[in-house]
Amino acid sequence: MAETLQEIREKARALRVEFETAQGAATDSAALQALRDRFLGRKSGAVSALLKSLGRLAEAERREAGQELNALKTVIEERLAAAEQELERRGREEGLRRDRLDATLPGRRPYVGRRHPLTVVREELEDIFVAMGYEVYDGPEVEDDYHCFEALNMPPDHPARDMQDTFYLEGPGGLLLRTHTSSAQIHYMLENEHPPDVRIICPGKVFRRDSDVTHTPMFQQIEGLVVGRGIHLGHLKGTIEAFLHALFGPQYPVRFRASYFPYTEPSVEADLGCIVCGGSGRLASGPCRVCKATGWLEILGSGMVNPAVFEAVNARLGRAAYDPEEISGFAFGLGIERVAMVRHGIDDIRLFYENDLRFLEQFTG
Ligand code: 2NL
Hints:
alpha+beta, 7-stranded mixed beta sheet, 11 strands, 41% helix, elongated, binds 2-{3-[(4-chloropyridin-2-yl)amino]phenoxy}-N-methylacetamide
């Protein structure tokens, strides 16, 4: 225990040297805190202990020794604070060095998503018909027998109604997955009794028990329906031709062939001159695979609405809202996958639904 001014001065000098040595070895903030405790700590700090021994000195000496010890205390505090700041600065610098941007590195390319190729085709078809004044109308995918078959002049023994061809839901109500979007058009006519002025397209998913390179159990369709006074086959042909020319280009010929659907009479299928071989059926490499060497692509089915369809709607409504004596209409339907396959020269429909990015990334969405 220091007893005299002389001893206290020597002790203070020794402490200063001791502090400077120890500070040189303190390289992190925990070590700095330990130093602070060791020299300035209230209870066991070395400088604090010396300050306590001042009481034994005479008044004049005590003041002198006190100033000396307080000066030492201040020096230690300042050194510790400076060391603390230096540590912080170095930490910041280190961090900056670690995170520094190397502008010469190649950038990380963000993954950019895109629309599915079938979405692209569907939206294009919608745009063409919307531009012609059509409304886009959605219907349910789960239907009943009336909307899917009965209203469309498909009698109970029609093969499409067979369990082999249609997905029936379990449980009561005889519900099923729609096999075409015609059922949505039936909904529209029942819900919008304002003939003669129907002009809609119904895009959507449809379901059939079928699976091979050109059939998937779920596929997508667009159907169109126009009803009004004096609508005739010329309107159908003009509309379909304008539509196909808008979709593929006006340079391709369009031809109509007689066909059969229970819900249209007469029925016609529309073909487009093959966009791959130019209608010749041949390529330098051999016969054209896309049109199977026929020079024509079958694109859609259509016809004048069978009056039996209007009668079925009227029967359900309980009034002759769609009187076949007053109004007539045409309808058409086409597969969205078929259009995409023809356009891109794809021969396996399943590729659209396997979600393999190596396939999907090849399209501009
Ligand atoms: C095809 C043929 C077609 C219709 C769909 C239709 C709808 C109503 C009334 C009459 Cl509400 N017809 N739709 C008509 C003809 C053909 O689709 O080959 N689709 C892929």
